[in-house]
Amino acid sequence: MKRLIILSIIFALSATISIKAQREVKMQVADTTEVLKRYVFMLLNEGPNRNQDSISVDKIMAGHLKQIREMAKAGKVVVAGPFDNGGKFRGILIFDVDSIAEAVRIESSDPAVITGRLEMQCFYWWTMKGSRLP
């Protein structure tokens, strides 16, 4: 019995590791097969250095928006935008990349991150493949 419990735990852990290593997983729901795809969800939070003058902020934000456009054009970012009244949470980026490390590497060149105006916080996020905003 003890051996069966240990084998069950090992199987459950290996299944979890396998899912995390993949970017797509098939799931049977009733008589339909759904495919889930993993993205990197990045919160952009207020950074520790937000005391720039208005001219500097304009330059930082112009560079920030240029960075987002370039990432979107390259297919690396599929959703981006600011929050309305989000407090310390300033916006989100959803990356279509292999790993959190890759998303952080890409976003690390954003002027808003470089200057400390924004900080990154990342999670893996799963959704049905082909999901889109209307």
Q: What is the SS-derived class? A: alpha+beta
The backbone outline, from C-alpha atoms, is elongated
In CATH terms, the superfamily is Dimeric alpha+beta barrel
Series of secondary-structure elements, N-terminal to C-terminal: HEEHEEHHE
User: Kindly state the mean pLDDT as a whole number?
Assistant: 85
Low-confidence region ranges: 1-18
Q: In angstroms, what separates the terminal alpha carbons?
A: 52 Å
- Please outline the major beta sheet: 5 strands, antiparallel
Write down the CATH topology.
Alpha-Beta Plaits
How many E strands? Answer: 5
Please give the count of helices.
4
Helix content: 25-40%
CATH class: Alpha Beta
Percent of sequence in beta strands = 25-35%
How many domains? Answer: 1
Radius of gyration: 19 Å
CATH architecture: 2-Layer Sandwich
Give an overview of the whole structure.
There is one protein chain. This protein has 134 residues and is an alpha+beta fold. The chain has one domain: Alpha-Beta Plaits. The chain contains 4 helices and 5 strands. A hairpin with a 6-residue loop joins strand 3 and strand 4.
Provide a brief overview of the structure.
The chain has 134 residues and is an alpha+beta fold.
Furnish the topology, listing elements before pairings:
Layout: H1 2-21, E1 24-29, E2 32-46, H2 54-73, E3 77-82, E4 89-95, H3 100-107, H4 111-114, E5 118-128
Antiparallel strand pairs: 1-2, 2-4, 2-5, 3-4
